[in-house]
Structure formats: C-alpha cells, structure tokens
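The authors assume throughout that readers already know how a fold can be written as discrete tokens. For illustration, here is how one protein appears when written out as sequence plus structure tokens:
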Amino acid sequence: MRTLIKGGTILTMETGAQPFQGDLWIVDERIASVVRYPDEAGEGRGRTEEQGRENSQLPCSQPDRIIEAKGMAVMPGLVNSHQHTPMSLLRGFSNDLKLMDWLHQKMLPAEANMNREDIYWGAKLAMAEMIRSGTTAFADMYIEMDSIASAVVETGMRASLTRGLVFMQDDGGIRMREAVDLIDRWSGAADGRITTMIGPHSPYLCPPQPMQEVIAFARERGIPVHIHLAETREEVVRIRERYDRTPTEYLHQLGLFDSLHVLLAHAVHLTHKDIRLLGGMKGGVAHNPVSNLKLGCGIAPVSELLRQGVAVGLGTDGAGSAATLDMFEEIKAAAWLQKLDFGDPTLLPAGQALRMATIESAKLLRIDGDVGTLEAGKRADLILIDLKKPHLQPIHDVEALLAYSANGADVDSVMVDGVLLMQGRKLLTIDEEELYRQVANRAARIVKGV
C-alpha cells in the first residue's frame, strides 16, 4: 500500500527541525520519504539530500491512497510513557483524596472486584480515548496482561506491557511467573507492535531480595525495567525509615541503574544527590504532571533532570487518578509547571514539550529507532491535527499552538504502522457503541459498595 499524505504542515520532531509544508510518502508500514515544498520566497531548499535520496526509493509516483492534509498539522503519534489502562473504568470514582487514601480506600478495593473481562474492556476504553486524542503508543503496568495485550492487537495500537510486581506478601512466585510469561509470550507480538518490560511496582512495595532478583533477571534477559519512584512524600519517609536512604539511593545501591534501561514513573520527590545519581542512566523519567497535580503530589524537577542529561518523557498515569488520557493536557501542564516553579517563562519551550510527548517518550519505551519522529525508514505512526479551528487560528507559530492551545479533540486522523485507526474523527478498529455499553455495566458493578 502506497499512501501519500499531501500538503500538510509537517513537524518531524527531529532535534532542531522547524515545521514546513510538504508531503509524506508511506509504503506499507514505513515512511518512505518526507518531501519539503519550496519556501514562500520561491528560493526554497526543496528536498534535503536525505529526502532526495529516499525519494529515489519510491516504487512509483502514483499512490494507492491520498490523504489530503491541507490545513492540518502532521506529526508523530504521541507516546504515553506511563499508564494503567484498565483504571479508565474508575475515572471520576474517587476524587479529592491524598494518594495513599485514594489508593487504599477506593482504588484497591474496586480493582479487587475486576475480572479478566473487565480489564479487557477497561483497557479498550483507554485505548479508544488515547486514539481519539492522538496517542499511538503507550507503556502500561497492570495485572492480567494477556487481556490488555489482546486489546492492543485488536485496536492496532503500539504498547510496552508490564506485569506490575508487589513483593510485600509471599505469593509462591505467582506474580513473577506471570511477568516472565508475559515477556515470553508477547515480546515482539502483533508484528512488533507489542514490547515488554519487567515491572517491580515501587521501592516501598519491593524489598531488597526480590528487587535484586528482578534486576538480575532483567540484566540476564536484556529486558527494560518499569517502576514507580518517589511519587509522594510519604514514600520518601517510608523508605528513609526502613533503609535510611531516599528511594533513589535505595534503588541505586541495589544496582538498578548500573546497566539496565529503566523507566522511572513520576520521580517527583528527588534530592539534588538523587538527580546526580540518575545522570547518565539508560532510560529516563516518565513525567505525569496532571496526575501529580490532581493528587497533590508535587512538581517533578524536570528542568534539573534535563540539565543532568536524564531523558524525560510524558505520561498520563491511569484515568482513575488523572481523569484524562489526553496527552495534549500533559504537554500544557508540563511546560507551564516548570515555568511557574522556577518563575522563568523560558523554561521548557513549546517545541521541547512536544518532543517530550513524542521522541523523548519513545526513548523511554526503547522504541525510538522505529517511532517518535517522522523520518524515512521509521514506522508510519503519525497523527493529523485539524488547524481550522477558532482556538488554533491565526497560525503564527504552529509548535506553540499545538503545545499551548490544542487538545485531543483537534486530532482528525491517527495511523499506526501505516494503518488508519481513526479518520475524520471516526474510530475504525473499535465499536464505540458496544464499548460504552460494556463499560457502563461493568463499572457500576465494580464500584458497588466500595
């Protein structure tokens, strides 16, 4: 299948690249060429050397399908670097509580009522919301991951899946066996759209011995690690009382950051020493500003992490805490919080915030070789955003519009691996009517009596 996306404002998200008018050629699941139009002065740079070289690889000049993109922005699909998809069934159920109260009084009792089918439909609801708001890939940590993987296959999304591991009670190794089974069964599935990680939940739920076993397994298998870190002050106090260290120092002493690719979710409460310890780590931090704001957790030290060379991507956390999976809300919140926290409006400018939601998040999922930028040879994971909206006009600076003014409802079309998952705001891989019927009935039962 040869697809031509014609006449859009293209944002490749490559470092230093500026938006330009042009065409995007796709052959099957990969980008074949990005063609830049001459500039308005007529002198234009035309095609770059690389683009001209890639154009010669096109099978012919006639596409099988043309997608008109005039008046639209074309950019890489957003990558949600930290999620708990089935928690979409608990959106709006528990509000205005501290995190530990929210978790133990509401979330855990309700989640205990979920069965495999509930998890499948909750994950599918999250995927419908993500596709509608421009997310093409996500990192998920939960239980019953086979159900979530099945939903990924059916919806056509890209995902990094992790079985969350809690080691405070002896379960005979069941959780660890489930985590290994997920890795063995699903790594590389769905034509490579599914990847996997190993997921010790957090320092406060993973004592040293099982954490060391997880680290040894990850090192032996070359598997990334996905873990929550320093989300709340309470966690920092607990770890200090238990081990006389910060959560970051605890993980560092166990060797987590020695050679492994690690995805750290939240990382809100870090000391200057903690940030230095993370410098040079493989992987990076998934910043979840909306969830952290709603739960009153605090503001992650994103600017300091970036100065230390730590990669920082964006995630939403689960809808049970964040209430929204719209990554454009995370982009706004991330940029504005750093400006506010330091009293410096120059921090985290629009283009950098957009890259955090695309290529930087892709780095955390270790899929940046395939997605995160629009380049010849990469997978065709991309979105079209309708700029013909009052709140997106006039167009002085398209990056600023997308970072500060756009929202998920402005996304017109979504493509993963060259396959359209949404076009003209219509989902093409999900039956929405059946989805809403299922989740309404299941959510009512899950929260009853909690």
